[in-house]
Amino acid sequence: MKGAPAGPCELRVRLGLLPLTFADEFDALSLYDARTRRGRWKTSFAHGPQRGAMAWDSRTLKGNHERQIYVDPAFPGSGFMPLGLNPFAVSQGILSIKAEPTTPKAKDQLWRFGYASGLLTSQPSFSQRYGYFELRAKLPRGKGLWPAFWLLPSRGGWPPELDVLEQTGGDVVLQTAHFAKGGGPAEVGHKTTVEGATTAFHTYGALWTAQRIIWFIDGEQTAAAPTPPDMHGTMYLLLNLAVGGSFAGDPDPTTPWPAHFEIDYVRAYGLAETPDSESPRHAGTLPSGGADRD
Fold this sequence. Notes:
Layout: E1 20-24, E2 68-70, E3 88-91, E4 94-101, H1 104-109, E5 115-117, E6 119-121, E7 131-138, E8 145-153, E9 161-167, E10 172-181, E11 184-193, E12 202-208, E13 212-217, E14 220-226, E15 235-243, E16 259-269
């Protein structure tokens, strides 16, 4: 790993002292059912129509000019019957989110989006203020691919946004906080080169307290910043594999299809009895966690 910033002594967190508040080891995938209000992961954003002629608005981020639409096996697109498109697969405790070009037939019912992919959000089932958030994942390689693990505010709106992990198809990982400043959006974060990000599993984490946000990769601190003034409410988790757009750039003929964002686990920890986990009682080592897989 290259690019970790120089600075004050590295903060480490002993996870054994923090209460585990959320964990998905992906032995199976629990999708949220709006009819029964059961299940863990929702497959569309909280904003926009969830069904009908404008349902695409809750299944892509048009402001980013993304090329994919997020689907699930029950999603009917612009029609009435499920299209049966499944971007999710679970095997041996690994969740794979798949992105691939849409077929001509499916494209007609997917508002002409050129790619289908997957989004998972804990918005209906889990949110938290402050804590440590981590996933273990192997990232896709290829131009125009944009996997992410991030948090959004339960109250809705944007910013703020806390990015534990973003990547655009190579070995450079971005970890960022977005916030409001001077009437517009601002951001602070860091880029880190992670050798083997697309060929092996690595852990990516963010410690969010009332005072600071500290990012980690494989248990090592990569960056830190003061917690923005608008990042003090509860936030929920998101996992997705976007394709193209103004941030990642569009795919080209070298982009391999299908592309896979492979996730071993997602975990969240609270901050025990105090919102300030930088106190000495939490000092220690941040383990990478999980059995090795590559």
